[in-house]
Design goal:
Layout lengths: L15 H32 L2 H26 L4 H25 L4 H30 L4 H30 L3 H19 L15 H13 L2 H16 L6 H8 L4 H25 L6 H20 L4 H29 L5 H16 L1 H12 L1 H22 L19
């Protein structure tokens, strides 16, 4: 059962728990983006192989995929704040272990693959619980604004993480300093999670066995055309969006730039997402047809990535990635917005866990791009992957007309006020 208190309209930025939750998400994403970039860079320096870089992403994706349903079920059973605290402690442990191995001079690619896999577990549990808590804190009336601000934080992190790592690698070429910084970032996220108030947590009083709870969530999602449309689009867009893992390859081998400009390029789509998400936040409740904005952004991201694949110049590539980011703001905001609006609050963590499963399936596209890059080159690999993604998303939009209409479903009009 959910226990909440009403929040005055428009008060989300004065809500202590929302700001703390926003901190957890923003800091975690700074760590994630910085960590994946430095791990990809490190594997590339050790092996010189784009395929080995792809395995970094695949390692993380495999565990995000494998633990998605369990993380969702646990989020509807356990104290979600404790789940987030556990995830941050695991993040700190991962980075500390890599730092120790790196200090011995015996670092091998498999160490990085294992670290990425464990990072995927932490991220999956954190995401499923954090987004469910956001709905409880914000309520349905403020959901678009809350999710838009969350996307702004996510996108700011996509800028800060790569820029800082790129600068550190440019200055000394030593990833150790990046790992030390990551420990500090995850520690701050941990502190924010600790100070979130417990009374906003939602624990189901009728606790089912985990497996039964998982299957109940799957059946629930399958019966909703809107949720299924989002899940299918999530698979397609995540397959398309795996280009980010190959930024070190594109920057070094094709655009011929160093680590600092590599970091700036990796931050380009994040800048675009901030512009898009801030616009969506200002529009707020004026946007009632979530599905149309969601599908338009998804199609835009795919077609702009095709253009990015054929760009021969750094400045043009950077500009196109900003457009990709604006499109992704529409996708990212309304992806969770549709899921949370269409679902009963007692199923929120489970439908978000299934969303994570869909994302994990799509993220296996990193392996596909790795094989295509080895055979055709990274530019053609990204273009082909994005073109197929565009076609699939268009077909999903045509086949799920309910997604193009205003979403009608369950909502939690009340939220807590701290």
């Amino acid at each position: 059962m959910t226990h909440t208190k009403g929040v005055p309209s428009g008060s989300i930025l004065r809500n202590r728990n929302f700001l703390l939750l926003w901190n957890v998400g923003t800091l975690s994403t700074i760590g994630e983006m910085a960590e994946m970039l430095v791990m990809g860079w490190l594997v590339l320096q050790i092996t010189g192989s784009p395929m080995q870089v792809a395995i970094v992403g695949a390692s993380k994706t495999s565990t995000m995929f494998g633990f998605a349903l369990v993380a969702g079920a646990m989020g509807d059973r356990w104290n979600r704040r404790y789940i987030m605290i556990g995830a941050q402690l695991l993040n700190i442990t991962i980075v500390l272990a890599l730092l120790i191995v790196l200090g011995t001079g015996e670092i091998q690619p498999w160490h990085i693959f294992v670290a990425a896999a464990v990072r995927g577990v932490a991220q999956r549990f954190d995401n499923a619980s954090r987004r469910a808590l956001m709905f409880q804190i914000a309520g349905a009336k403020r959901l678009v604004r809350a999710l838009s601000l969350d996307v702004v934080g996510f996108s700011t992190s996509r800028i800060i993480g790569p820029l800082v790592v790129g600068a550190l690698l440019q200055i000394n070429g030593d990833p150790s300093s990046s790992f030390v910084l990551l420990i500090g970032v995850y520690f701050l996220a941990l502190i924010s999670a600790v100070y979130i108030q417990d009374n906003i947590d939602s624990i189901n009083t009728a606790v089912l066995p985990v497996i039964e709870s998982v299957f109940q969530g799957i059946k629930y999602s399958y019966r909703s055309t809107s949720i299924m449309g989002v899940l299918l689009t999530t698979i397609a867009i995540n397959a398309v969006f795996q280009y980010h893992l190959f930024i070190p390859v594109i920057a070094q081998d094709y655009l011929k730039v160093g680590p600092a400009l590599m970091g700036l390029l990796a931050a380009g789509d994040g800048m675009g997402v901030i512009l898009g998400a801030m616009t969506l936040s200002l529009l707020g409740n004026k946007l009632t047809n979530y599905g149309k904005v969601f599908l338009t952004g998804s199609l835009g991201a795919a077609i702009f990535l095709v253009a990015f694949a054929f760009s021969p110049w750094y400045a043009l590539s950077f500009g196109i990635l900003i457009l990709v980011g604006i499109s992704m703001a529409c996708f990212a905001t309304f992806q969770s917005g549709i899921m949370l609006t269409a679902a009963s609050s007692s199923f929120h963590s489970r439908v978000l866990g299934i969303q994570g499963l869909a994302a994990g399936i799509g993220q296996m596209g990193s392996i596909e791009i790795g094989f295509l890059a080895s055979a055709l080159g990274i530019h053609l690999a990204i273009a082909l992957n994005s073109g197929i993604g565009f076609i699939l998303i268009a077909l999903i939009g045509i086949s799920t007309p309910a997604l193009l209409r205003p979403i009608k479903g369950f909502s939690n009009e009340d939220a807590e006020d701290k």
